[in-house]
């Protein structure tokens, strides 16, 4: 049944040949799942570039060189469509940590009930979302772009956990996203779980948004799960000078605490991680046993301040 579902998904995304080839590579030992996944990613990139490179060139030509960019408020955007009170405990703990460490910022939780108060999507986007063509995950990609373009500020995924103040390399940047992979050598060059824009109408975001809208206006399937990331890569490749202005900070350290969630709580290990970074990308999709690190999230985020106060 699982194989049938995968084949059906590949056919709907028109990636059957690529997926079968990648699967064959893993079965014959020529590649592991990571390398096979990279192949699929590059094939998707090539397809999207072929079909949308001219759109991007037109977007670049039509956008005014000088955008009306206004300084953003100290605003944090988080989304949980069902409402934070209905979120899993890990998500609620993450939210509590953000409120604790960013108490001087305005924190807004976007839900299905209040979303229209902040953004207005094109009619075809709303229709395809309601029909299930656009998933909640991929709607959130469009949502973060809309919010940052129109308001600026800091977007963080609902599973972002904080154990310290926001780093200066973020707050002092005009635009910031964490880098992915080694020296931009991977297809995906950024992590979208944290995005900061000090000003409205950031060009990298505007171009990416335009490509996404052009895609969803034309197609009723998702070519690749990382559609927004691939379009962002296309945009940064065309605007290398703007990408160069973004501090190159990798997000590997920010994923270390996630690995500890199901493990028995180790104070020394958690201190090692929180000394590396105060911002952590977690997941609520984890099995938790008694005494696990995940059970400590309700108090762990306060430890760093208490430790600093005691020095």
TrEMBL record:
It comes from the Bacteria. It holds the Pfam family Caps_synth. InterPro entries: AfumC-like_glycosyl_Trfase, Nucleotide-diphossugar_trans. This is Capsular polysaccharide synthesis protein.
């Amino acid at each position: 049944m699982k194989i049938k579902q995968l084949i059906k998904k590949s056919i709907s995304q028109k990636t059957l040949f690529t997926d079968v080839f990648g699967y064959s590579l893993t079965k014959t030992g020529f590649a592991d799942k990571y390398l096979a996944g990279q192949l699929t990613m590059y094939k998707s990139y090539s397809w999207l570039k072929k079909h949308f490179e001219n759109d991007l060139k037109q977007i670049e030509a039509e956008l005014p060189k000088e955008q009306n960019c206004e300084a953003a408020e100290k605003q944090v955007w988080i989304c949980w469509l069902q409402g934070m009170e209905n979120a899993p405990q890990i998500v609620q703990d993450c939210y509590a940590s953000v409120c604790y460490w960013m108490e001087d910022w305005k924190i807004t939780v976007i839900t299905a009930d209040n979303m229209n108060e902040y953004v207005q999507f094109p009619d075809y986007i709303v229709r395809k979302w309601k029909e299930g063509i656009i998933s909640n995950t991929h709607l959130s990609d469009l949502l973060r772009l809309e919010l940052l373009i129109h308001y600026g500020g800091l977007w963080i995924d609902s599973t972002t956990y904080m154990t310290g103040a926001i780093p200066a390399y973020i707050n002092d940047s005009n635009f910031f996203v964490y880098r992915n992979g080694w020296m931009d050598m991977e297809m995906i060059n950024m992590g979208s779980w944290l995005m900061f824009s000090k000003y409205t109408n950031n060009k990298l975001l505007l171009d990416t948004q335009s490509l996404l809208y052009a895609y969803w206006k034309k197609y009723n399937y998702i070519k690749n799960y990382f559609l927004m990331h691939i379009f962002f890569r296309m945009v940064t490749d065309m605007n290398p000078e703007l990408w160069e202005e973004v501090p190159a900070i990798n997000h590997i350290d920010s994923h270390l605490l996630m690995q500890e969630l199901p493990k028995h709580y180790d104070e020394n290990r958690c201190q090692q991680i929180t000394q590396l970074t105060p911002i952590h990308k977690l997941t609520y999709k984890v099995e938790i046993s008694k005494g696990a690190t995940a059970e400590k999230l309700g108090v762990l985020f306060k430890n760093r301040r208490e430790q600093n106060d005691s020095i």
